[in-house]
Design a protein that fits this description.
The complex is a heterodimer of chains A (338) and B (375). Chain A has two domains: 190 residues, Rossmann fold; 129 residues, Rossmann fold, CATH 3.40.50. Chain A is built from twelve helices and 14 strands. In chain A, the strands form three sheets. Chain A has a seven-stranded mixed beta sheet with strand order 3-2-4-5-7-6-12, sandwiched between helices. A five-stranded mixed beta sheet of chain A has the order 9-11-10-13-14, sandwiched between helices. A two-stranded antiparallel ribbon of chain A has the order 1-8. With 375 residues, chain B is an alpha/beta fold. Chain B has two domains: 104 residues, RNA polymerase II/Efflux pump adaptor protein, barrel-sandwich hybrid domain (OB fold (Dihydrolipoamide Acetyltransferase, E2P), Beta Barrel); 259 residues, Rossmann fold, CATH 3.40.50.1820. In chain B, 32% of the residues lie in helices and 22% in strands. Chain B has an eight-stranded mixed beta sheet, sandwiched between helices. The N and C termini of chain B lie far apart (45 Å). Classes of the chains: A alpha/beta (338), B alpha/beta (375). At the A-B interface, loops of A face helix 7 of B.
Chain lengths: 338, 375
C-alpha cells in the first residue's frame, strides 16, 4: 500500500470528497493564494501547503481565499452549511478561535437544537494545534477540550495519516458541525494510506496496542508518543494497551471503560493543560464508572498549567514525553504490589 | 567456520514477509531438538504460527529474544553438538551477524514484488504477477472478503517454476468496488476480461471458497481456457454454509468483535494476527465495500444457504480437477467433498480449517506442484 504523509492524506480526503460531492467547498486564509489579485495563483495552498492543488482542479468557485477575518469567514462557512453547502473552513491556528467562537459554539452548535431538528449544519472546521513547532504560546495550544465541552459539536483528532484521511471524509459527510484537529508537527509523518476513499466512524476508539498490565488512553499526536513508551516498557516486562480516542465528541465510553477494567491500571495522556481537559474527563469517567475494577489511582500525563514556552529547551520539556509516560506507567503498575 | 554449527534463521513465510517477531521460545538452551520439532512461535504482520526446526541438534544458543522483531534471514538460534566450545559459538554468532548486516544492506536495494492494476471489462482490477516459465500460467482466485495477499504463502512457492498471477475479485482488495448483480457469472466474466486484457488464452485455475465457485463457473462456461482446476474448500458443493461467519464479517466494525469471527476461519485461533484483523477492518471501510459484499452474499449465500450449487456438473469438465479441504473447516463442511465423481482427486487435510492454503501451505503447495506436473 502506498505511503503518504499526513499532509497528503488530508489533501486527498478533500480532493476525493470534492470530486464526489459538488456541494463541498474549501475556504480560509490563503487556502490557494492570490485570489482577486494579478500574479501567481495557488502559490500558498494553505500556510503549510495542505490544500495545494485544489484550486487549479476545482476553480475559484469552490476554493475561496478569504480575508484575514476569522469571525467573517467562519461565520460565512456556518451560514453556507445551514443553506445547503458542505464547507470545509480552515481556521489556521486553533489559537485564533477567540475571534470566531460565537459563530461556532453559539450558532453552528445550536442550530439543530434551536430549530427543532429542522436545520442541519454540515460544516467542517479544520484547524492546527499543538506544541513543538517553536511557534510560542499564541500558536501552540491544544484547545480541543473547549470544543469537546460544547454539545452539538463533534471533535476529531487524528493520530496519523491513515486516521486523518478516514476521519476527515467522515467529518465532511457528517451532517453536524465537526472540529477537525491537525497537529502542526505531524504533517510530514507517513503511514500506509489507501488510494480509495474510506470513512472511519466517529465515536469508535482504536486499540493501537493490546496488553495486560496497564491501559494508556491518548489522543492525537500523543498516541504515537504513548506507543513509543509502551514499546519501551514491553522490554521491561510491562505490557500496555494503548487506546486512541480518535474523537473526543462523541466519546467511546465503552472502549475506555472496558480497557480500564481489563487492566485496572490507567494512565491518560493529553498534550493539553491539565485542568478541565480531556484527560480529567477520562479520569473522572473511569473513577465514576469503573472504580471497582481499579487497582491504582488513574494517573494523568499532561502539559503543565502554563503557556507553551518559546524557549526551545523549555518547550521540549513542556510536551509530554515517552519518558514521562513510561514513568507514570511504572508507577501505576507498581501501585499496591510493593 | 567450526564443525557442525548450524544457524537457525528467521523464515520467510510468503512474498510479503520482510520481518517477523519472535513471540515465544518453545525450547530451552541445551535441549536436543529434532528436525521439524516446534521450537518457537513467530508472528508476522499477516499471520502467527509455530516455527519448526530446520535441522536436528542441540539448541546451544537462543540469539533472538522473545518479543524481538527481526528481518527475514536474521539469526534466531544456533544448533551445534555439545562438544563445540562456547567460544566457537560466540565466534559463529559474531561472524554470522557481520555477514548478515552486509547482505541486508544489499537486499534493501531489491524490493518485494508490487501489485499492478489494469482496466478490464470497464473495471479496475488489481493483480500480482510473480515468476515465469513454460506452459499456461497459474491464476489464483481468493474467497469472500479476501484479496490476492491470501495466496502469499502459495504464489511464491509455485513462482519458481511458472508464471503465477493472483487477482482481487471485483468488490475486493484494490479492485473496483462496483458490483452489478453479485452472482458467479459476473465474477467469472470479470476474470475472463482480465485474462483477455493480458492476452492469456489458457490458465491453471486455483480458487478458494467463493473463488473456488467462481473458478468452477468459469471452467464450466469456458472449458477451453482452463488447463486444470484446483478447488480449495470451494463454495458451490452443498447448501450448508456458516451464515454466522458471513453475518459477523459484514457486521462487526471493531477488532475485538471481529476477531472471534475471523477465528472461525482457522483451526488454531492464534493464527489470526492483530494485523490481519486490522486489514479486514480497513478493507471494510473502503467506499463501496459493504454494498458489494452484501450483494455477493445475497446472490450466492442468501437466506443462510448456498444458492450456487454446481457440484452435480463436475462430471462435465474435460480438464483435471482436484479438491483440497481442511477436515475441521467450520465455514464450509469438508463432508461436501464426499461422493464426488470419479476422476476428481480429493485431498482432506487433517488438523486444518477453512484457510487450508494458509494453514497447511506446504501440503497444499506440494499437492499443487504434483497436480500441475501431471496435468
Amino acid at each position: 500500500m502506498p505511503k503518504k504523509s499526513f499532509r497528503q492524506a488530508v489533501n486527498e480526503a478533500l480532493r476525493q470528497e470534492m470530486e464526489r460531492d459538488p456541494t463541498v467547498v474549501v475556504m480560509g486564509e490563503d487556502v490557494a493564494g492570490g485570489m482577486g489579485a494579478p500574479g501567481e495563483q495557488d502559490a500558498w495552498g494553505g500556510p503549510l501547503g495542505v490544500t495545494k492543488g485544489l484550486m487549479p482542479q476545482f476553480g475559484r468557485e469552490r476554493v475561496l481565499d478569504t480575508p484575514i477575518s476569522e469571525s467573517a469567514f467562519i461565520g460565512a462557512a456556518v451560514g453556507a452549511a445551514a443553506t445547503g453547502l458542505r464547507p470545509v473552513a480552515e481556521l489556521m491556528f486553533v489559537d485564533f478561535m477567540g475571534v470566531c467562537f460565537d459563530q461556532i459554539f453559539n450558532q453552528a452548535a445550536k442550530f439543530r437544537y434551536m430549530f427543532g431538528g429542522k436545520a442541519t449544519t454540515p460544516v467542517v472546521i479544520r484547524t492546527m494545534y499543538g506544541a513543538g513547532f517553536r511557534a510560542a504560546s499564541q500558536h501552540s495550544q491544544c484547545l480541543y477540550n473547549i470544543f469537546t465541552h460544547i454539545p452539538g459539536l463533534k471533535v476529531a483528532i487524528p493520530s496519523n495519516a491513515y486516521e486523518a484521511k478516514g476521519l476527515l471524509i467522515q467529518a465532511i459527510r457528517d451532517d453536524d458541525p465537526v472540529m477537525f484537529f491537525e497537529h502542526k508537527a505531524m504533517y510530514d509523518e507517513e503511514a500506509e494510506v489507501p488510494d480509495e476513499p474510506y470513512a472511519i466512524p466517529f465515536g469508535e476508539a482504536n486499540l493501537v496496542r493490546e496488553g495486560e498490565d496497564v491501559t494508556i488512553v491518548a489522543l492525537g499526536r500523543m498516541v504515537n508518543v504513548a506507543r513509543d513508551a509502551a514499546d519501551r516498557l514491553e522490554g521491561e516486562g510491562i505490557s500496555c494497551t494503548v487506546v486512541d480516542l480518535r474523537t473526543t465528541s462523541p466519546l467511546d465510553r465503552e472502549t475506555v471503560l472496558e480497557t480500564a477494567a481489563e487492566t485496572g491500571r490507567v494512565v491518560v495522556v493529553d498534550e493539553a493543560h491539565p485542568r478541565c481537559s480531556v484527560a480529567t474527563d477520562i479520569a473522572a469517567l473511569i473513577a465514576q464508572e469503573a472504580f471497582e475494577s481499579l487497582e491504582a489511582p488513574v494517573r494523568m500525563v499532561t502539559a503543565p498549567h502554563a503557556p507553551v514556552p518559546f524557549s526551545p529547551a523549555l518547550e521540549d520539556l513542556y510536551i509530554p514525553s515517552a519518558d514521562r509516560i513510561a514513568e507514570a506507567v511504572r508507577e501505576v503498575h507498581g501501585h499496591g504490589r510493593r | 567456520m567450526s564443525e557442525g554449527i548450524e544457524a537457525v534463521v528467521m523464515p520467510k513465510w510468503g512474498l510479503a514477509m520482510q520481518e517477523g517477531m519472535l513471540a515465544a521460545w518453545l525450547v530451552e538452551e541445551g535441549e536436543t531438538v529434532a528436525r521439524g520439532q516446534e521450537i518457537a512461535e513467530i508472528e508476522t504482520s499477516k499471520i502467527a504460527n509455530v516455527f519448526e526446526s530446520p535441522a536436528a541438534g542441540v539448541l546451544r544458543r537462543r540469539v533472538a529474544r522473545e518479543g524481538e522483531t527481526l528481518p527475514v534471514g536474521a539469526l534466531l538460534a544456533v544448533l551445534a553438538p555439545a562438544s563445540v566450545h562456547e567460544e566457537a559459538i560466540d565466534r559463529f554468532v559474531a561472524e554470522f551477524e557481520a555477514r548478515f548486516a552486509e547482505a541486508l544492506a544489499a537486499r534493501k536495494a531489491e524490493a518485494a514484488p508490487e501489485p499492478a492494476t489494469l482496466e478490464a471489462g470497464g473495471r479496475r482490477i488489481r493483480y500480482l504477477e510473480v515468476g515465469e516459465g513454460e506452459g499456461p500460467p497459474v491464476l489464483f482466485l481468493h474467497g469472500f472478503g479476501g484479496d490476492l495477499t491470501s495466496w502469499s504463502l502459495n504464489q511464491e512457492a509455485l513462482a519458481g517454476e511458472r508464471r503465477t498471477l493472483a487477482l482481487d475479485l471485483p468488490g475486493h482488495g484494490g479492485s473496483d468496488k462496483r458490483i452489478a448483480r453479485g452472482d458467479l457469472e459476473e465474477l467469472a466474466e470479470a476474470v475472463a476480461a482480465f485474462l483477455d486484457t493480458l492476452g492469456l488464452s489458457r490458465v491453471h485455475l486455483v480458487g478458494h471458497s467463493l473463488g473456488g465457485a467462481v473458478a468452477l463457473r468459469f471452467a464450466l462456461d469456458r472449458p477451453g481456457r482452463v488447463a486444470s482446476l484446483t478447488l480449495v474448500a470451494p463454495a458451490g458443493f452443498g447448501e450448508e454454509i456458516a451464515d454466522a461467519y458471513l453475518e459477523g464479517f459484514l457486521r462487526e466494525r471493531r477488532a475485538k468483535k471481529l476477531r472471534p469471527v475471523l477465528e472461525m476461519l482457522v483451526r488454531d485461533p492464534t493464527m489470526i494476527g492483530r494485523e490481519m484483523v486490522e486489514e479486514v477492518l480497513r478493507y471494510k471501510r473502503l467506499d463501496g465495500v459493504p454494498e458489494a459484499l452484501a450483494k455477493i452474499r445475497e446472490r450466492c449465500f442468501g437466506g443462510g444457504r448456498q444458492r450456487i450449487l454446481l457440484r452435480d456438473r463436475l462430471a462435465e469438465l474435460p480438464m483435471p480437477v482436484q479438491v483440497l479441504w481442511g477436515r475441521e473447516d467450520r465455514i464450509l463442511p469438508a463432508r461436501q467433498a464426499e461422493g464426488l465423481p470419479e476422476g476428481v482427486a480429493v485431498t482432506i487435510l487433517e488438523e486444518c480449517g477453512h484457510l487450508a492454503h494458509m494453514e497447511k501451505a506446504e501440503a497444499c503447495n506440494a499437492a499443487l506442484r504434483r497436480f500441475l506436473a501431471g496435468g
